[in-house]
Specification:
Elements: H1 7-12, E1 28-34, H2 39-49, E2 59-64, H3 75-84, H4 121-127, E3 131-139, H5 143-149, H6 158-167, E4 172-176, H7 192-198, H8 207-212, E5 218-221, H9 241-252, E6 259-265, H10 267-273, H11 277-301, E7 304-308, E8 313-314, E9 318-319, H12 333-341, H13 350-353, H14 360-371, H15 378-386, H16 403-415, E10 420-421, E11 427-428, E12 432-437, E13 446-449, H17 450-461, H18 465-472, E14 474-475, H19 476-479, E15 484-488, E16 496-501, E17 504-509, E18 512-517, E19 520-530, E20 535-537
Helix pairs in contact: 2-11, 3-5, 3-17, 9-11, 10-11
Length: 546
Amino acid sequence: MKLKNSSLLLGLSMFAFASFGQSRPIKNIIFMIPDGTSIDVLALSRWYNENPLALDPYIRGLVKTHSSDTPIGDSAPTGSTYATGHLSRTGFVSTYPDFEMKGMEIVATDPKKAFSPMFTILESAKLMGKSTGLVVTCHFPHATPADFSAHLQFRDNYEVLSKQMVHNNVDVVLGGGTNYLAPTLRKDKQDLYNVLVSRGYKLPKTPAEMNAVSGQKVWGLFAPESLSNDLDRDSTQQPSLAQMTAKGIELLSKNNNGFFLMVEGSKVDWSAHDNDPIGMVTEFLAFDRAVKVAMDFAKADGQTLVIVVPDHGNSGVSIGSAKSNKGYDRITLKELIEPLKKAKSTAEVIPNLIDSNSTSQQIRDVFSSHYGVNDLLDSEIDTLMSFFRPQTIQKDGKKKKNSFALVKITTKILNKRTFIGFTSYGHTGEDVFFAAYDPRGNAPTGLLLNTQVNEYMQQAWNTNLDSLTNLYFAPHGEVFSGFKTTIDSTDKLNRILVVTHKKKTIRIPENKNIVFVNGKEITYPTLMVYNGIQFYVPVTLRKLLE
């Protein structure tokens, strides 16, 4: 059923920005996403923390989180909607959805635009002369950070996404993912470290090195993949999200034209996938401390808009479970929170704590010291130890077991001792909270479409992303109509669009921001995107041949 013309959608689209005051123009935007945070996480975190949340005073309403074709969103399209203002499909990173599938679409789409890149609010900031930044706890080419700085219909193609992100010249990137820069680990053999160094980036690898950086171009990665959960973090090796947020603001605010910063508490979502309430709460509280950093800056600055909103829910977490069906109204706060308070680690670290050589007593000791569980049953120990017994091979030859399965076993054991419930190991489709600090005093309220969150940012900066998409991401066949064009696929991981006219030849490498005119390199402020079908380039490239 299409909702495009329904009264619901029309009613929501009446949301107005016209009343926003213009006395203090917005110079900076800090956009903060606690990935996969369902509303019960806020309540549980308050009880755990015994204090209000930093974001509580700024909660304004709710946001619908559906994708273009499903009520339950994936981080790639839901984050893309915040970045571009358009709904998209599962796996699509700031890329227009493909043709409608009968019975599956929620909103109508234009088949002519299928698989085309869509300009983001971060890319708009660059064109306005503002600095840009990404601060995350995941590996940097993961869905949400990629949503703001890359374009592809395959969210798991980290090789392409990381290449685009490096060549998109984001000024400050802090998080994890050194594995995606090294040429020895990349199929395309691109040395992205060298690209960053050649463009003047500082590359801190520890919190101390990050704190010492004073330049405006910084790419700090503190783990080969994602960062550790905050509860499990070695503070000498990995900075907190709040520390990275503070550093990002410090560096970006040196630009008198302003900045855009996206901050993601990436691993609230990961803990939700694990059904780990300890991880969810502690990761969210780490995110909330970053919110305080952003809000404190914004209130002192007077020209900074801060938006805090999850991209979707996850896990169906609830305060109350099957265990509390009877007597739910007599459960004490201590009974609710103490099992979580006892934990010194999240479930994510369990594969590092026990292995096939662990004895029953060693497993008991691990659960006692790390999770505060002193009554582990023999049957639970047997279940844990069975994970390490000779693995059953499926017909296709793949092994059944992995570290995620061990984490799931662990959270099932831990959750039996709590009153926290879960309905799923996957995303959920409920509305999520919307919080904002607007120095003009007119933050929107009520129920918003996720597209309207992006519209709010466009209005704040008086920018039009659709117009920028048309100017900078035009199909190469249209831009170079009448000229000879070929795609050189000699290296299938590094294709080149070749355009010739008279005595001039342009060579355009895929997913970079450079072109070569008769061998001379020219740098552009935007990417030349290749989506596996065609290139998308600025319309002004035609003038180089005329």
